Amino acid sequence: MVALLLVLLWWLQGLRRQTELALGPDAMRLQAQLLQGLQALDVRLQQLERSSQSTQMTVAKSDGALDRVTQHVQTQLAQAQQDALAARREQAAALASFREEVAQLAQRLTGDSQQARAALAQSSAEQSVHVQQRFEALAETTRGTLDSLKGDIQQQLTHMSTNMGAALKDQLGSNGEQLRHQFAVLQDAVSQQLAALAQGQQTTAEQLRATLNERLATIQSDNALKLDEMRRTVDEKLHATLEQRLGESFKLVSDRLEQVHKGLGEMQTLAGSVGDLKRVMTNVKSRGTWGELQLGSIIDNVLTPEQYARNVKTVPGSDELVEFAIRLPGRNDEHPVWLPIDAKYPVEHYQRLQDAQDSADRVAIVAAGNAFETSIRGEARKIASKYIAPPHTTDFAVMYLPTEGLFAEVLRRPGLVEALQNEHRIVVTGPANLAAMLSSLQMGFKTLAIEKRSSEVWGVLGQVKTEFGRFGEVVEATRKSIDAAARKFDQVGVRTRAIQRHLRNVQELPNGAGQEQPLFPVASPGGDQTASENDE
């Protein structure tokens, strides 16, 4: 290879001298560049040859690094091929550039002879072909050398692998006896450990079963005590709540009755002056307005605005309006039942009766009394025909007499009040009597409210009953879970015997470091979890 390079250099020097004579300074510069490229190529080829020689020596000396050397050789071969290809490309590029510059110089030297240019062109072409042939021969020689080197390396690798296989076979044969002996020792140790473990697990299971039974009995007794305590607490709270509500209701009734008695006393005190006022009031419209105002004042003092209404049309399809109507509970809240209350004040007939009594005229007293009864019956008939219409109203109405004297005179008439109630369904009331009746209605409303609240209490008791049922279900589920856990512990012995059957043929493994290893090495938490999952 070196001789070939020397011949190539000698030929290039001769070519350079001819080119210098023919082309001058420009050609010399191009030839210098071409020479530098060839010298660099020569240096690279020498480096590759030294690298190949060092690689062969390394392969011969180091058997343990065969893989690394093979990889390195392949890398060097690839790199050499790439370098040769790059050098070939550089030489071709240099020759192409050289041809272009030669053509340019030929154009500048148009004054030279045509024979010199033809000879120069022919010489350049022949030299280019000769250089190309030399480079191809050099590449072929390098490729053959690398192929032979690769074959030698593969033969050495095959021989070494054969030797190593035999050595490994002998080593494995010697280790087999040791493995069988160690497996036997390990099997005996594992059997002893499993027997001890089974005995300990059986004892632990018995203890755990006894402990669970004791705890279950304790939990049942505690639950029974807590249930009794909760039942007593609920009974006490309900009893206390009912007593408190009833006490408040009775207290309210007593207060209202005291107020009624107090009002009655005040009414009796004012009866005389009211009688004088009635004698003064002779205008019918004024008397009616005064009676309505008095009736409205009494109702406002006793009832709330939601419990009554003014100027109510009680009869559907009629234009008659009752002065006041008490709102009573109906089938639903949108359609209540009305209790009509109308104020009447027949003061003329009552005044004639008072005058006759003052004059002690027996005939006049009888005539005035009959006229008074007739007027009262007529007013009752009007109220019944105008305002009573069941089921929109009650089957009776209230006729309010604004003075206690007038009300007392009606009560003194034998059979008059009963006749009004039986014939016309009219209840006659005075100022004090109306307040008492309205107070009774108020107590009825409160009694209805108490009944509604009692229904809520019964609802709460129903919820408590439901919760007690759910609590019993939870206790039953807890008992079932404890029984299932006890059955799981009973299965531990079965699983232990199954493990013993699987490990009867297990032998002890060899210890590579020559040191004793624990029979059951401590594994990481993740490893324990994986083992338990595999057992399951």
Please tell me about this protein's structure.
Helix 1 packs antiparallel against helix 2 (25-61), helix 2 runs antiparallel to helix 3 and helix 3 (66-108) packs across helix 4 (114-280). The protein has helices at 2-23, 25-61, 66-108, 114-280, 284-302, 347-359, 362-387, 404-412, 416-424, 431-502, 525-535; strands spanning 308-312, 322-332, 335-343, 397-400, 426-429. The chain contains 11 helices and 5 strands. The chain has 2 domains: 2-159; 238-463, no CATH class. With 536 residues, the protein is α/β, with parallel strands linked by helices. The protein is 80% helix and 6% strand. The chain has a 5-stranded mixed beta sheet. InterPro entries: DNA_recombination_RmuC. It comes from Comamonas testosteroni. Belongs to the RmuC family.
Total tally of structural domains: 2
* Cα gyration radius (Å): 66 Å
Query: How many β strands by DSSP?
Result: 5
**Poorly predicted tracts of residues:** 512-536
Structural class: alpha/beta
Order of helices and strands: HHHHHEEEHHEHHEHH
> Total helix count?
11
Measure the end-to-end span. Answer: 74 Å
- Main sheet: which strands, in order across? 1-2-3-4-5
